[in-house]
C-alpha cells in the first residue's frame, strides 16, 4: 500500500530524513574520535586538534583519578556537562581513570587547560577550563571550543 504525500508532507519527511542523517554523521564522527587509543600521545594531540585545540605537547601531565562511587553535587554538575558532549561518567563510578592535562597554546588564550579523561585508552570525558579568576569550564565539544576561541579572538 502506498501513501500519497502532499507538498507539506514531503517537506516534513525531507526535514526528518535530514535530521536523521545529521545525527548519524555526528555519531560516526564522535565514535571515530572516541575510539582512538588515547594511550598514544600522538593520538591525543590529533584528537584535540580535531576538536580545534592547539596544545603544547610537552606540557602534558598524566595522573590517575578515581571516579567516585557516589556523586556529590559538584560531580553531578560535572557529569551533566559531560553529557552535553556525549559522555557519561555514571558508567565509570568507582573506577580509576587516566587524566591527561595539556596547556592550550592558541593565541589570546592564556591560562587555559584541557583535560581528557580516559579508561583503557578510550575517551570517557573531559573539559576545557581557564584558571583565571573569572574563568570557565566547558565540555570537550567542538562547537563550544569554537565559541570560546571566537570570543577570545574578538576580545583580544
H/I helix tally = 4
Looking across the biggest beta sheet, what order are the strands in?
Answer: 1-2-3-4-5
Percent in helix: 40-55%
Q: Radius of gyration in whole Å, from Cα?
A: 19 Å
Helix/strand/pairing class, anyone? Answer: alpha+beta
What is the straight-line distance between the termini?
Answer: 62 Å
Average pLDDT, to the nearest integer? Answer: 82
**Major sheet description:** 5 strands, antiparallel
Structure description:
This protein has 156 residues and is α+β, with helices and mostly antiparallel strands. Helix content is 42%, strand content 22%. It contains four helices and five strands, in the order H-H-E-H-E-E-E-E-H. Strands 1-2-3-4-5 form a five-stranded antiparallel beta sheet, covered by helices on one side. The protein is globular. It starts with 6 loop residues before the first helix and ends with a helix.
Amino acid at each position: 500500500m502506498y501513501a500519497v504525500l502532499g507538498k507539506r508532507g514531503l517537506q516534513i519527511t525531507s526535514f526528518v530524513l535530514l535530521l536523521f542523517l545529521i545525527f548519524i554523521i555526528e555519531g560516526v564522527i564522535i565514535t571515530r574520535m572516541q575510539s582512538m587509543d588515547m594511550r598514544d600521545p600522538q593520538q591525543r594531540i590529533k584528537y584535540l586538534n580535531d576538536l580545534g585545540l592547539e596544545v603544547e605537547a610537552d606540557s602534558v601531565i598524566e595522573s590517575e583519578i578515581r571516579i567516585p562511587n557516589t556523586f556529590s553535587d559538584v560531580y553531578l554538575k560535572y557529569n551533566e556537562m559531560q553529557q552535553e558532549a556525549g559522555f557519561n561518567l555514571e558508567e565509570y563510578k568507582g573506577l580509576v581513570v587516566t587524566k591527561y592535562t595539556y596547556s592550550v597554546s592558541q593565541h589570546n588564550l592564556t591560562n587555559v587547560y584541557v583535560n581528557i579523561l580516559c579508561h583503557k585508552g578510550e575517551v570517557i570525558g573531559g573539559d576545557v577550563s581557564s584558571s583565571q579568576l573569572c574563568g570557565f569550564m566547558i565540555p570537550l565539544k567542538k562547537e563550544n571550543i569554537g565559541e570560546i576561541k571566537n570570543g577570545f579572538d574578538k576580545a583580544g
